[in-house]
Amino acid sequence: MKVIVMGCGRVGSQVSNVLARQGHDVTVIDHRDTDAASRLGPDFKGRLISGLGFDRNILIDAGVERADAFVAASSSDNANIVAARIAHNIFKVPRVVARLYDPRRAEIYQRLGLITISTTTWGAERIYELVTHSDLDVVHNFGRGEVSIVAVEVSYSLAGRTIRDLTVPGEFYVISVTRDDRAFLPLAGTEFHEGDTLHIAIQSSALPRLEEMLGLERRA
Q1: Alpha carbon distance 153, 166 (integer Å)
Q2: In this predicted model, what pLDDT tens digit does every residue of 29-88 receive, in sequence order?
């Protein structure tokens, strides 16, 4: 997959390196040559272009007309939105993601068909979950936090019960069991063993109900 990443700060450089290590064709656009090269490191296998990510000539030089995805990850909300809209509306890049700090802007541009990541909103939700649901390890969020994946270690009180006992349709499902360092997809009748790690897909609004079923005490 050909991916263009605009911005080479902490987020942009990490995303670029992860994509490149996975074998994707990555081009990074940043106006700070030295800083960008330093953040990417000597092992970065992609391409680095100096310039502004909303400059059409720079985008064409980066190969936007052939790109499968565009990531706007600079430190400026305005720059990210302008670049994302150019990539999405003019060059018809199939998948465009914009990083935004202001969650109010994120909602507006999601309505326009842009995928946005608000680090402010995500961080606040993550802190809330860690404070109020500290016995549940939230390992991933989807959308704006409406759906989460949580990890739970099976205690002696849960051992012997089955997947069926810990399933509430529309609220949460056990999607994976890790036992003796090996993960597998469970069936409805799969029994829990003490020490198993369960990964559960859950509507975030159902976290209190899951805690109640697991016998966990929620912090007020």
Answers
A1: 13
A2: 998 766 788 888 888 989 999 998 889 999 999 999 999 999 998 888 888 889 998 999
Share of the chain above pLDDT 70, in %: 82
CB 172 within 8 A of CB 210: yes
* Domain-located, residue 125: no
Residue at a domain's end among 119, 147, 178? 119
Q: Which of 121, 92, 91 is nearest to 105 (CA)?
A: 121
Domain range enclosing 57: 2-119
By CB atoms closer than 10 A (0-12, 13-18, 19+), residue 133 is buried
119, 149, 176 - which closes a domain? 119
Q: Are residues 110 and 201 in the same domain?
A: no
Global model pTM greater than 0.70: no
Q: What span, in angstroms and rounded, lies between the C-alpha atoms of 37 and 55?
A: 20
Closest CA to 110 of 146, 140, 85: 85
C-alpha 16/C-alpha 8 separation (Å) is 8
pLDDT tier, 199 (very low <50, low <70, confident <90, very high otherwise) = very high
Distance (Å, rounded) from C-alpha 53 to C-alpha 38? 19
Percent pLDDT > 90 in the chain is 33
Question: Would you call 179 helix, strand, or coil by DSSP?
Answer: strand
- Whether residue 45 is contained in a domain is answered as yes
Contact present, 91 and 110 (Cβ < 8 Å):
no
